[in-house]
Write a structure and sequence with these properties.
Chain A has about 250 residues and is mostly helical. In chain A, about 65% of the residues lie in helices and about 0% in strands. Classes of the chains: A mainly alpha (about 250), B alpha/beta (about 160).
Chain lengths: ~250, ~160
């Protein structure tokens, strides 16, 4: 049960790290190349520890590399939000705001987990994610409260990712059982602080939370968008072409 | 084997070679077992710090140079690294090499918006501004001095 929880959180971090890495050498300015690469690196570090732990708990001999490179899309348990294409910079910043705000509230509570490894990962990651959230906040404010064009794009970016926010707060049999034991955080408890934070940023940026979004979900059950397949093809290509490769 | 800790403590950080892993606060413990086997605990600055493998290899190599071959380098995550563990001489070394050392880490485990000014490590002016919260390594931000116009790295309080 714990292995499935660690896997889901690890997959969130791994897939978003891969997405953010696509910005390197393509961001609007050099500082953003560096910032997004740094954020991706933090997430990759979190993913490595979580996937390693998931593999140990599972006890089937799968390490972080096997889990990252040898599972197909239906076996990934990340939320759909993190696999969405980067779009333009505003789409990426909207996705960053929604996800970092969620991950911050999650890790902040997971620090108190009765599972020592999860608590340690969260205690370290919460400090990193605070920077991620702040980075996204500053851009959403700057673009939302900027020119007519930046405002239009930021509003469109928000509309593109908003349907995928609900899934962040979905529980399942794993989170129900583990949160009762004090191991996991019940995702439903994160909605209120998340809404308060994100709502505050949007209000200050002059943006409205999209009202007519139809929620999209399925990632935690392995039902992904088409886009995850392309992401995995790029991420896994080397390892599948040259099994066991190291450098 | 009293010199074992000193050997490990003198290993420089691969990304900030002006300070040792002890000065940076990432060396957490060195233990010598009855059979002479050495166990070293290190902790990453950030979860994804790519220097960990290099640090591990450098520790093993430093001890091997002194004839110690039974070495186990472990990575520990808790308690989480904080810039408060950078030693006073480590801070001085950073500043002397053009890297502004961090202020005190915020209480409560999470970072808050920084309000303290960062002093330029080149000219000492407090009239500086943040160019980018993310710099050349995970643990640094990029700043620039308004007085001397020089850019510089700043180790982020964490």
């Amino acid at each position: 049960m714990r292995d499935r929880y660690a896997l889901a959180l690890g997959d969130d971090a791994l897939v978003l790290a891969q997405r953010l890495g696509e910005w390197v050498a393509r961001a609007p300015e050099l500082e953003e190349d560096v910032a997004l690469a740094n954020i991706a690196l933090d997430l990759l570090g979190q993913a490595r520890t979580l996937l390693t732990y998931a593999g140990e708990l599972e006890g089937a001999g799968r390490d972080e590399d096997v889990l990252a490179y040898w599972r197909d899309d239906r076996d990934f348990r990340n939320v759909l939000l993190v696999e969405l294409p980067n779009g333009d910079f505003a789409v990426t910043m909207a996705r960053q705001l929604l996800f970092a705000a969620y991950q911050y509230e999650l890790y902040d509570r997971l620090r108190a987990s009765t599972d020592d490894t999860l608590a340690a990962v969260a205690g370290k990651a919460v400090k990193e994610v605070h920077y991620h959230r702040d980075h996204a906040t500053q851009w959403v404010l700057r673009l939302g409260d900027g020119t007519d064009e930046s405002h239009r794009r930021m509003a469109e970016g928000l509309r593109a990712v908003w349907p995928y926010a609900d899934e962040l707060f979905d529980g399942d049999d794993v989170t129900a059982a583990l949160s009762a034991e004090g191991v996991a955080v019940d995702p439903a408890t994160l909605r209120e602080p998340w809404t308060a934070y994100v709502g505050g940023v949007l209000a200050e940026a002059g943006l409205e939370p999209p009202a007519d979004a139809t929620p999209r979900r399925g990632g935690r059950r392995g039902l992904h968008t088409e886009q995850l397949g392309y992401l995995l093809a790029e991420m896994q290509h080397l390892h599948r072409s040259h099994p066991g490769v190291t450098w | 084997m009293s010199g074992v800790r000193e050997i490990v403590a003198a290993v420089p950080d691969p990304e900030l070679p002006v300070v040792t892993i002890e000065q940076l606060g990432i060396l957490r413990d060195v233990r010598v077992g009855d059979g002479g086997q050495v166990t070293v605990d290190i902790t990453p600055t950030y979860s994804g710090c790519p220097a960990m493998d290099a640090i591990r290899a450098d520790i093993v190599a430093a001890l091997a140079g002194q004839g110690i071959d039974t070495v186990d380098v472990r990575t520990v995550l808790a308690p989480a690294w904080t810039t408060d563990w950078i030693t006073p001489d480590g801070r001085t070394a950073l500043e002397e090499h053009g890297i502004a050392p961090p202020g005190p880490a915020p209480a409560g485990g999470a970072v808050t918006a920084l309000t303290l000014t960062v002093r330029c490590p080149h000219c000492g002016s407090p009239d500086t501004r943040e160019l980018s919260r993310f710099g050349s390594t995970a643990c640094k931000a990029l700043w620039v001095c308004r007085a001397c116009q020089e850019p510089f790295d700043h180790v982020k309080a964490l």
